[in-house]
Amino acid sequence: MVNTVWAVSGWEELAPGVGRCRLPVWDCTAGLVVGEGAALVVDAGSSVPEGVRLRTEAQELLGGGRVTHLALTHPHFDHVLGAAAFAGVEVFGAVGVDRVLVHDREELRADAVRNGADPLEAAEAADLLVRPRHLVSGEWTLDLGGGRQVLLANVGPGHTPHDLAVLVPGTPGTPGTPGADCPEVVFCGDLVEESGEPQAGPDAVPSHWPAALDRLLALGGEDAVYVPGHGAAVDAAFVRAQRDALARRFGVS
């Protein structure tokens, strides 16, 4: 059954208390995972106003509750330049992402402008970037309360040297009880893209990208919902096909 609160807000609920929205212009995905007294947002949008929108909408979905955690899947402008809107929350990223956000701010700003962002908004967002306090080298389990745990996994390099996936475990249902079985949800960042071919910029690590997708598939399994950084949610077969296409494209196994 569709949760009308999420639907009216423009968010898509993928499992109870787990959803995403597709942001305009770059069709970038942001996610929300709701616990008890805590909530995690996945990715921050492309500007401070977009980050404010995400945080405001998330807190409305929480019924006035607080966003307490933010996970950045990788350090590209359309996923991180809204991070200043999340000041005061616990920010997570893959090991090394902090160095990019500190030392490569000018390149993030310039990349945003090259792709059509407002120059003043891009400059403000770069100046105000929030540095992750928690750096994930392997796996990190967050307890959001109410039995909701979320796994952050450093599965890269691939799309960038610092790719972080977010796994929300599923809930097995009672046999014979319709609708009780909730799927696992995996937020993939731009390791997976549905609305276009995966983009391999100068910071991509093509030789390791297929292996990163193998790790994603091992985390989520065959029945998970996989949420690309851009585009519609997909299944394991889509991720596997994209993995094989990337292997052929870059000449790796």
From TrEMBL:
Gene3D superfamilies documented for this protein: Ribonuclease Z/Hydroxyacylglutathione hydrolase-like (3.60.15.10)
Domain (Metallo-beta-lactamase): residue spans on this chain: 27-230
InterPro entries named among the record's database cross-references: Metallo-B-lactamas, NDM-1-like, RibonucZ/Hydroxyglut_hydro
Protein name in the entry: MBL fold metallo-hydrolase
Organismal lineage: Bacteria, Bacillati, Actinomycetota, Actinomycetes, Kitasatosporales
